[in-house]
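Supplementary Methods S3. Input chains for the assembly prediction are listed below.
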Amino acid sequence: DAGITQSPRYKITETGRQVTLMCHQTWSHSYMFWYRQDLGHGLRLIYYSAAADITDKGEVPDGYVVSRSKTENFPLTLESATRSQTSVYFCASSESASPMNFGAGTRLSVL
Amino acid sequence: GNSVTQMEGPVTLSEEAFLTINCTYTATGYPSLFWYVQYPGEGLQLLLKATKADDKGSNKGFEATYRKETTSFHLEKGSVQVSDSAVYFCALRAQDNFNKFYFGSGTKLNVKP
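Predicted structure tokens for the full assembly:
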């Protein structure tokens, strides 16, 4: 199916564990983004990527790692999860002059 | 710098009421402007967009006009339905950096039957 897919949709983990959230898009869009959404903070940009092998930090990158070896995939890794990283995570993609397209989100709980 | 400010919610309306959600922006140059809608448990979906001054975006009965003189992009709908209950986000894409989208904080709309 065309679009942007995030997996898993729900994840429960424990403090200190490494967690990877997956994001896959089928449009071959150049730009991909990771946001977190928290009550009272709206959407906050974690990392973004302009192309394969090009990534850059957003507003709140601490504690997260990204990679982009292929255009279509943009995984987000929490190296050592903390309770403050409990959130809903959204992946998005776009092309230069196009709107941003969002995935359905991953709801992460860190216990 | 670039930023988006939208009215705080929640906004509660009765079915068939008129809706306005205010959005103003600060930007250098000529940004593109967007409204996104988020239904419970889902991601954000593009609702409408406008790419230059005086453009009117419209979709599903919603409209917004890009007003450069007032730096605004207010969302309107003439008659809301219960199914319109959602969170609405105003956003801009900077002209000078296509990487950068700036989102408002979101406005929750509750429509009562």
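The mean pLDDT of chain A is 93. Residues 9 and 94 of chain A are 21 Å apart (CA to CA).
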